[in-house]
Amino acid sequence: MSGDETVLVVEQDLVSTNADDLKEKLQSTVADNPSLLVLDLSKVEYVDSIGIGIIIATFNTLKKQNGALKLINLNSNLLDLFKTMRLDKHMEIEGAA
């Protein structure tokens, strides 16, 4: 499946209580070596430091594999958070329409 774009809809908030489930899904998806992994965050309202760490770790793994990470459909609060952290300088980030 190398070279493909993969879209993963995150079904719950990216917080420590959900971290293990999300890590497993992301590790499985990244193992397929997509050229672009798109995380749809339309159902996510909150991200804590653990969630941010998971996103950054996923970005770093994909980068080592010459892949990319894109975040889409972020609510305005999450979009502001990720821009404040300057993550938009490293990965493509789009707010909700």
Structure described in brief:
With 97 residues, the chain is of the alpha/beta class. It is built from three helices and four strands, in the order E-H-E-H-E-H-E.
Radius of gyration, CA atoms, in whole angstroms? 12 Å
Strand order, biggest sheet?
Answer: 1-2-3-4
Helix content estimate: 25-40%
- Largest β sheet strand count, sense and barrel closure: 4 strands, parallel
The outline comes out as: globular
Provide the structure class: alpha/beta
Mean pLDDT: 94
Low-confidence blocks of residues: none
In what range is the share of β-strand residues? Answer: 15-25%
What does this structure look like?
The chain is an alpha/beta fold and 97 residues long. It is built from 3 helices and 4 strands. The chain is globular, with a radius of gyration of 12 Å. The protein starts with a strand and ends with a strand.
Describe how the helices and strands are arranged:
Layout: E1 5-9, H1 19-31, E2 36-40, H2 49-64, E3 68-74, H3 76-84, E4 92-95
Parallel strand pairs: 1-2, 2-3, 3-4
What keyword list fits this structure?
97 residues, alpha/beta, 4-stranded parallel sheet, 4 strands, 3 helices
